[in-house]
Write the C-alpha cells for this entry.
Amino acid sequence: MASSIVMETSDNEFNSQQEEFQLLQNAIPQQTVTSLFACGHPLIRSPKDAIKFLFPKHYYHLRHDIERKILHHDVSQQELDAAAKFGRFSQRPSDLFLKLFYGVICTLQHNPLAGCVSPSLIGSTGVIPLTIISTIPDIMYHYYHVIVHAQKEILFATMYWENSESANIISKAFRDLSERAGYENRRVIIKLMMDHPTISNALHIHSIIPSNKWS
C-alpha cells in the first residue's frame, strides 16, 4: 500500500512538471526586447518599456519552489525531447547538456529574463564570420567599416573607455552610422557595454551609465 502511494505521488508530480513545462513554452513571447524596441512603436521608448510590455510580471516567490523541483526531479526522456525542441540547435545536444538546459528553461517561470536575454533567444546558435588578426589601427578601421554598414543592431563590448585614437575611430563610426541611418530614415540599435565600476555595482552587477560619464 505504501509503495503504491509513493508511485501515485511520483506520477502526479511528473504530470504536474510536464504540464508546467508545456504551459511555460506556450507562454513565452516569440518577440524579443530588441525587435519590439526597433519597431518604433510610440509607447515603446526604451528597452525598459519593451521589457515591461513583454514580461509584465515576475514570479519571484516561485523561485525556491522551482529550484527544489529541479534539484529533486529526474528529467524524463519526454522532457529532454522538449528541451531539445525548445532550443534552436543545429544538431541534438547530448542528454547531459539537455538536462542542464532543461533546468535553465525552468528558471524562466519566476523570471523570464533570468537568462539575461529574451527567452526566445535562449538556445540560439550562430557563426562568427570573420576574425581579424592584425595591428590595432587595422583592427579599428575594420570595426569602423563594420559599424558604418550596420543595418539593424550593434552589440559593442569593450574595456574601460578612455581617450585614444582607437576610441576616436569608434566614436566617428557611430556618428557616421547615425548620419547614414538618418538619411535613409531608419533606426539602428547600438548596445554599448564597457567596464566602468561604480558604487551601484555593490547591489547590481550591471548598471546603466549616462553618456556624460562615459569618459
In short: The first helix runs from residue 2 to 27. The beta strands are 153-157, 189-193. Residues 182 and 188 are 9 Å apart (CA to CA).
